Amino acid sequence: MIGDGVNDSPALSAADVGIAICDGAEMAREIADITIAGDNLEELVTLKRLSNALVKRIHGNYRQIVGFNTGLILCGIGGVMQPATSALLHNTSTLAISV
Fold this sequence. Notes:
One of its GO terms (biological process) is copper ion homeostasis. This protein is mainly alpha-helical.
């Protein structure tokens, strides 16, 4: 729901995602989940693209860390490396991918 006035406030609070225009009523801005600066609704497209890129990055990082940690577990089980080394690499890789 997109709104900018006091009369939009109930709909903004009931909506899954409430979007208010910055120039609108203060009550609408407080209730809304997102407030857009300015009155250009094309910013929603930019926000959606940024959101999609962020989700794509999170999924990629998750796949990468799960794959790497699976490899470390297999190396530890197979005796290729010491379990302590595998645990250290696991923690280091998790911290590195989080940054």
